[in-house]
Amino acid sequence: MAAGTVTAATRVVELGELAADKHPGRGADKDITVCDLTGVGVQDTAIAGFTLGRARAKGLGTARSI
């Protein structure tokens, strides 16, 4: 927020909204997605796996090793 990239007016979208196609997600290649998984580890893993499967099925995203 200090850099002005994210402001108080920035819309926060839940990961579930993206997975359920209730929000289109990124609008341009320059947009980024930040995901803060702070729930129960097994739930976070299940949600991430589900979301990855949906993205791959739609031909979205890129794979990177960290």
Describe this entry's structure for a reader.
This protein has 66 residues and is mainly α. The protein has a domain at 15-57. It is built from two helices and no strands. It is globular, with a radius of gyration of 13 Å. The chain starts with 14 loop residues before the first helix and ends in a 9-residue tail after the last helix. 0% of the residues are buried. The mean pLDDT is 81.
Number of helices: 2
Distance between the termini: 24 Å
Shape: globular
Could you estimate the helical fraction of the residues in percent? 25-40%
Parts with pLDDT < 50 across at least 5 consecutive residues = none
Please outline the helices and strands.
Elements: H1 15-19, H2 41-57
Jot down its keywords.
66 residues; mainly alpha; 2 helices; 33% helix; globular
